[in-house]
Write a structure and sequence with these properties.
about 300 residues; globular; ABC transporter involved in vitamin B12 uptake, BtuC
C-alpha cells in the first residue's frame, strides 16, 4: 500500500488533511447512526427527496451571497440554504401525500424531480455570472473532500457530533417508534414529533454531507451502512452502533483516497467503499448473511 495513503489514514499527512479526513469520518458516523433509524422506520426514500431538494437552496444561497458580499462561496450560508430547501421539499411531500390521492412514493418522485430540475437551471445560470467561485459549485453534486477548507471541515465534524449526540439521547424513543408506532402512540409517545425530529436530524446530515459526499450520493451513505449492519446483528442498539462504525469507516477510507487522488469524486469513492463493506457483510454476516442462510437450510 502506498505510504502516502497510509499517512493520510493515520492522520499523519499534515494538519489540513487530518482535519478533512476526520471530519468526513464523523459525517459517516452521523449518517450511519441516523440511517439505522431511517431504515427501520422505512423512510429511506424520503432521504433521497431531501438530498435532491437541497440543490435549489444551495444555488439560491450562492446568489444571495453574491448579492450581499460579491462572492457566493460562504459555506455556512450554503448549508442554511440547503437546509431550508430540503425542509420545504419534505413539507411538500407530506402535503401531497396528505391532501391528494397520490401515494408517498409518487409524491417523493414528483418533488425530487421538480426541485432537482430547478436546482440544475439555477446552477446553469450561476455558471454564466462574472463572479468567482461558481466553478466549485459542481462539488456539491458529487462531493470533494480535497477542496474543503479547515473551517468547513470543523463545521462538518462539529455538526456531525451534535447529530450523533441528539440521536443517542432519543435512541429509546426512536427505537420504539421504528418497531411499533401504534404501540408507542397507545403509550402516549408523541409519534409525529419523533418522526419530525428524525427527519430534522436526517436533514442535518444531508446538508452537512453536501460538500463531502455530494447531494446525489449522500443518500447512499445514509442507507448502505445500516443495511450492512443488519447482516451482523438482530439487536437495535448493536445495529445502530455498527451502522455508525461502518459509515465512519467508509467515509474515512473514501476521503483518504480522494485526498490522495483529488480528481476522483469523493462521494463516488465513499459509496464504492461502503458497497464493499456491504458485500463483505452479505458474505460473512452471522445474523442475516449467507452463513445464517446456510445454517437455516442445514437444519
Amino acid at each position: 500500500m502506498d505510504t502516502g495513503f497510509i499517512d493520510i489514514l493515520l492522520l499523519r499527512a499534515g494538519y489540513n488533511s487530518a482535519v478533512v479526513v476526520a471530519g468526513a469520518a464523523l459525517l459517516g458516523l452521523a449518517a450511519g447512526t441516523i440511517g439505522a433509524f431511517v431504515l427501520l422506520r422505512k423512510r429511506v426514500l424520503i432521504s433521497d427527496a431531501i438530498s435532491h431538494a437541497t440543490l435549489p437552496g444551495v444555488a439560491l444561497a450562492f446568489l444571495l451571497g453574491v448579492a450581499l458580499t460579491g462572492g457566493g462561496r460562504h459555506f455556512g450560508l450554503l448549508l442554511v440554504g440547503a437546509g431550508v430547501s430540503g425542509a420545504l421539499g419534505v413539507l411538500l411531500v407530506q402535503a401531497i401525500r396528505d391532501h391528494t390521492r397520490l401515494p408517498e412514493d409518487s409524491a417523493i418522485a414528483t418533488v425530487l424531480s421538480l426541485f432537482f430540475g430547478v436546482g440544475v437551471v439555477l446552477l446553469s445560470h450561476i455558471q454564466t455570472l462574472p463572479v468567482g467561485g461558481q466553478a466549485g459549485m459542481n462539488s456539491f453534486l458529487l462531493g470533494s473532500a480535497a477542496t474543503m477548507s479547515l473551517d468547513e471541515a470543523w463545521l462538518v465534524g462539529g455538526a456531525a457530533l451534535a447529530v450523533v449526540g441528539l440521536a443517542a439521547l432519543l435512541a429509546k424513543e426512536f427505537g420504539l417508534v421504528c418497531f411499533d408506532a401504534g404501540y408507542a402512540a397507545a403509550l402516549g409517545w408523541p409519534v409525529r414529533r419523533l418522526d419530525l425530529a428524525l427527519l430534522v436530524l436526517l436533514l442535518a446530515v444531508v446538508a452537512i454531507g453536501l460538500k463531502t459526499v455530494g447531494l446525489i450520493l449522500v443518500v447512499a451513505l445514509v442507507t448502505i451502512p445500516p443495511v450492512a449492519a443488519r447482516f451482523w446483528t438482530e439487536r437495535l442498539g448493536a445495529m445502530v452502533v455498527l451502522a455508525g462504525v461502518l459509515g465512519a469507516l467508509a467515509a474515512w477510507l473514501g476521503a483518504a483516497a480522494s485526498s490522495l487522488l483529488p480528481r476522483l469524486p469523493t462521494g463516488g469513492v465513499i459509496v464504492l467503499v461502503a458497497a464493499g463493506l456491504l458485500a463483505l457483510s452479505l458474505l460473512c454476516g452471522p445474523a442475516r448473511g449467507l452463513p445464517a442462510r446456510w445454517r437455516r437450510r442445514s437444519v
